[in-house]
Amino acid sequence: MSWEVYDDRPCTLGEGPIWHRAHGQLLWFDIVAGRLLSGGDGAREWTFEEPASAAAELADGRVLVATATGLTILDLASDAREPFALLEADDLTTRSNDGRPDPWGGLWIGTMGFDAEPEAGAIYRVTGREVRTLFPRISVPNGICFAPDRSVAYLADSAIGVIWRQPLDEDGWPDGAREIFVDDGPAGLPDGAVCDADGYVWSARWGGSCVLRFAPDGRLDHRVDLPTAQVTCPAFGGEGFDTLYVTTARQGLDAESLAEQPHAGQTFRVLGTVPGRPEPLFIPD
Question: Model-level pTM?
Answer without folding.
Answer: 0.96
